[in-house]
Amino acid sequence: MTAGRIVIYTDGAALGNPGPGGYGAVLMYNGHRKEIAEGFRLTTNNRMELLAVIRALEKIRQPGMEIHIYSDSKYVCDAVLKGWLQNWQRKGWAKVKNPDLWKHFLQLYARYKPHFHWVKGHAGNAENERCDYLATFAAAKSPNSVDLGYEKSLETPPDLF
To answer: From CA 14, how far away is CA 136, in angstroms rounded?
Structure first.
């Protein structure tokens, strides 16, 4: 790792989908390491994958750093790398899941301009495995935190027409 480069690994988990969920992230910079995790009583795996990235980026205090994010989530990585996110935004978020999180992510993405890298999950990558452990543990420990964006979406009737 070179000075000025932040490396972040992220993962999300849900025990049932939806079900109790959690995220985990490992942030590394210049020999320093920080682990973060949180669990929610009801959410989805994809929301936790994206929230892991959001929470990790929120921990960064100084813009202008080179940031590399490693995730085993095709949902998150492809949305960024394949340009899906810009298409969703241009179309007004029509029929997009998790628009609350994507909108928040876009603000952070514009500020930090992180580089995304997909890694295969459960393939022996130590940092990815650690994030998986953090996320799964957070989901399994009877979390009380509310994923307001998800639970609020349950109250909204589906768009039938």
So the answer is: 7
Range of the domain at 60: 5-150
For the chain, what is the radius of gyration of the CA atoms? Answer: 16
**Neighbour count for residue 134 (Cβ, 10 Å):** 25
Q: Is 155 a catalytic residue?
A: no
Q: Which residue out of 22, 39, 72, 147 is catalytically annotated? A: 72
User: How many separate domains does the chain show?
Assistant: 1
Is 157 within a domain?
no
Q: Annotated catalytic residue: which of 24, 38, 39, 49?
A: 49
pTM of the model: 0.93
Specify whether 12 is catalytic: yes
- Mean pLDDT, contiguous 10-residue spans, the chain (161 residues): 80 96 97 97 97 98 93 98 95 94 97 97 94 98 92 75 56
Residue in 11, 38, 127, 147 annotated catalytic: 11
